[in-house]
Amino acid sequence: MVLPVLRKLSNAAFLRRALLVAAAFAAVNMIFYPIARAMGEPLVHYNWIAQDKIAQLDRIAASGRCIEVLIQGNSLAAGSVDPARLVARFGGRAYNAGLWGTQLHHDAEWLERFVLPRLNPKVVVLVVSPLSMSDTSAIAREVNDKWERSPATRVDIWSKLDGVLRQLVPVARYRDVLADPGRWRDLLGGEPDEEDRRDPLLRRMTESGYIPVDRVVDVTSQQGEDLKNFARKLWLRGWRLSESEVRSLEDVALLVHDSGGALLVVLVPTSPVLRDLLPGGKGAFEKYRDRVVHAASRHADEVIDLSDLAIPTPWYYDHIHLNDRAARMFTDALAPAIAPLHEPCGED
Asked: Which of 95-99, 120-124, 130-134, 144-148 has the lowest mean pLDDT?
């Protein structure tokens, strides 16, 4: 007789506590959710460029617009090919999904998980540097660490649970925003730390994903040393291609072909300054470039080598990347190679 009564009391007490916890939780969400929204969206990708491009891709997919030509690659793609200028030559629509600081294995994952499910391009143009299929870049390693830790690109079981929690609980979704001192300073009218600012390149990004850079060469001493170190490490590797990057190139080709598209690999121009830094004497760059062309030819429908395009040296604003004037030259040189593969996907 006593035990059932105690159980009822215990259950009632548990229910009251559960209701109190739920009410407190709801109150916290109601209070902090509008504050967090005012502070801006949380960063769930490895950088803001990737996150803003997802928003652009979502808008394109929601509109039902057809994208015939997709540009993919790292910053050499994002800042070197203007889709609007490209399709002005042969019509249709194009989008530049290029990222910043990534390698080919990131491109493969980006295409598989985020781009191809939203778009169905007829042609994918993969922009690579003749020197980019090595794994000597410290920047690439830093990006890889951020990629593996970011909520949108982590692949472990905890990231999946976290994704569900972020969807169901507003405060959980915005917890990184609420924990960011820079966001609070910005909300309250103060100046956030420089590292808290969104990438200024985003202010220039067009709706078709192109990121123009309007400056000429201006290389700091540290960047110069980084270039020299890159060249030395490449030489110490014996001018070998990264096996993982070659496998990732094959992965990209399989993804594109499985989606019904054609893959065009394009080698970007390479500055004379960078070529001269490479040890090995005359012809060293050409030998490495030929290995890249050979590896790409095994998987791509076509390989276009524009590494010798006559770009004025000052237009390589850091001796590697093209500025907006160089990008116009490169885009115009690329258009005739895409035109034969281009298939209009019809009117909206």
From this structure: 130-134
